[in-house]
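Inputs:
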Amino acid sequence: MNKATVNNHDQRLKKGSRVLFFWTLLWMLSVAGLVFGPKLMWDFDHTATVITIVINLVLGIKMLLVNKQHLNDMDDMQQKIHYNAMAISLGCTMVLGIIYGSLKPAGLLEENPNPSNLLFVMGLSYLIAVFINFRKYL
Amino acid sequence: MKNRLKVLRAERDWTQADLANALDVSRQTINAIEKGKFDPSLPLAFKAARLFDMPIESIFDDGQEQ
């Protein structure tokens, strides 16, 4: 067996990561356009905003499909690690989301809860879970 | 689950990277399977059996008495 052979699986995964990064970047740019565009670029023109929403939606769907393909390209252990991380992330977001949502009615928060804060919880818990799971198998 | 991957690999003078490439998985996955930290799926176990030209039960042992 050729010991200098490059691992095809790793190469495929690296390429998948680059493709996922590209589409995620495009989606994030479209989110930025959606958030800042109406005020800073097209003075709340409804047509421009609707077009931006459609572009954002299309890019979001493409990003989801690329992410799904990336997960399919992973091997057994990598998939298990990421699926476990998704379960933990979903659970954390649900539990903390309900607590966060009840802060204002309970009088502990003056402002309305911002849903985008939950994305931060979701991303952070996912990253931590992936890190812990990877260490478990090393 | 116990397995003989490390022994079979050593008999053929293969590295973990060689075996990983032959089974189309990452080297970390081979390492985890060899250490018994991760049990491979049935398709991956069959793939290993075909690669070593041996029955699955000769490579993987779940420790259950028949």
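DSSP finds four helices and no strands in chain A. Flag for discussion at group meeting.
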